[in-house]
Design a protein that fits this description.
By secondary structure, the chain is mostly helical. The chain is 18% helix and 3% strand. A two-stranded parallel sheet has the order 1-2. A two-stranded antiparallel sheet has the order 3-4.
């Protein structure tokens, strides 16, 4: 009887995990196979360093910052200039274009605003006892740079008009705002001029079995709403670049936007 109960419990647990996986799957996790691996085992030569640890570029088991999970990096300080346009939600237009960004996005900007070297860690490994050094530039001062054609690319803090800027988010999707507040605004709510142009919160979270993520009790949109830094899109190109779900047929966009 005890064995039967154990077998049944394991079966139920397995089904729950499989069910959760089908709803919350965020792509194949294997950060070692991505450009976020900046260790000596990095798959791309220009990102390699003399540090053998992979996770240390973002995480540390001791002495990390509290804004993220055992976070091993200093945070960018801005100031930030957010996207704005005449067609933007009146709720978002009412927020300051220079508003602060929240912790979930600050973690990304610790590298991607381009103001801090990707090699500068709060707690270097015991093996090196210092910051890692790039084996491509042979030093530890390696901030993310715009591409040679002026495209800021991974340097999210720069715009096409000023690729070298820090904190310029005017050409990037709005972040650090409450999706729930936009949904309940007079513009998008019942009878509003944009009613039904955004999907309900529950629908966006579960869209086509993967959906997007929201943060906090106010269900905020942040960088990690659409991106997962651990996703191995080398193995599954549908998740390029670090997408939280494939964007085939614009289904990442359509998780929120009903157009």
């Amino acid at each position: 009887m005890k064995s039967a109960r154990l077998t049944l419990s394991l079966l139920v647990a397995t089904l729950l995990l499989l069910g959760a996986g089908s709803v919350w799957a965020k792509g194949l996790a294997n950060v070692k196979n991505t450009i976020h691996n900046m260790s000596s085992s990095a798959p791309y030569a220009m990102y390699k360093s003399d540090e053998s640890e992979v996770c240390i570029f973002c995480h540390t088991p001791h002495g990390g910052r509290l804004e993220g999970p055992l976070w091993n990096r200093s945070l960018a300080t801005g100031p930030w200039t957010h996207y704005n346009s005449a067609t933007l939600s009146t709720y978002l237009q009412g927020l300051s274009a220079s508003r602060a960004i929240n912790d979930e996005s600050l973690l990304c900007m610790a590298c991607h605003d381009g103001s801090i070297s990707v090699m500068h860690l709060l707690n270097p490994s015991n093996t090196l006892g210092r910051n890692p050094r790039s084996t491509f530039t042979f030093n530890d001062d390696v901030p993310i740079q715009p591409l040679l054609d002026g495209n800021p690319a991974a340097k999210i803090g720069g715009s096409r008009g000023n690729a070298g800027a820090f904190g310029d988010l005017r050409d990037d999707h709005p972040i650090s705002f409450s999706y729930a507040s936009v949904l309940s605004s007079s513009e998008y709510g019942v009878g509003g001029v944009k009613e039904n142009q955004l999907r309900p919160l529950a629908t966006a979270k579960a869209w086509l079995g993967e959906g997007v993520r929201f943060f906090g009790t106010d269900n905020r949109v942040e960088c990690s709403s659409c991106h997962d830094p651990h996703v191995d899109y080398v193995t599954d190109a549908d998740y390029t670049p670090f997408l939280i779900r494939p964007n085939d047929s614009s289904n990442l966009c359509l998780a929120c936007h009903n157009k």
